User: What shape does this take?
Amino acid sequence: MHIGIVAGSAEGAALCYRTIVHEGAERFGLYAHPHVTMDSISFSEYMACVDRNDWAGVGELLLQSANTLAKGGADFLICPDNTFHQGLPFIESRSPRPWLHIAAVVAGEAVRRGFHRIGLLGTRWLVSSEVYPEQLTARGLDYLRPNPAERDEINRIIMQELVCGVFSPGAIAYHQKVMARMKAEGCDAVVLGCTEIPLIMNDANSPLPTLDSTRLLARAAVLRATSAP
Assistant: This one.
């Protein structure tokens, strides 16, 4: 099957694409991967909607990319941007192709690995939303959001550093501090719920096991694309 990627930030979309390619090669042999097409509307157009809390507008941009990708032959769609999933409910019924929901994929992996209380990390818009809580509670999982100060600083790191390709020791240290607090409050795993956070955080430097939303979505897309109907 043909995978359509609805891109958000360049860094997150590139990581998702690379993971699909590498996962394909691991499963099917050197250089092999499913057919992939990406559509990338200017990130600034999305952020103009986000800044005015216009999630329906975000949805319309997602739909625009969905229509482009469907015309290009995509069989299903993924969006490696957690925050923009808040726009999906506004347009999913009108989408020309089905979507793999990033939080549903992550929640399923949390269940598979036997986790119970999940820390949520991401932009302030994402962690204040119900994108992850809906998917986690539907599977009987508990969760913990960052406190307001943590949301603001992580959001600053994401929007001023990570999406711009800036990866600093201070950003790593701050994420480690928040994760350590979540661990102390009973979390047994943490969602890297911004598709750029995996560029600086992983199981090797995190106080908690990580659920890498970007790579999990990419791997789920490969499985879907190569599974028998």
About this structure: The radius of gyration is 17 Å. The chain has two domains: 3-101+216-226, 102-212.
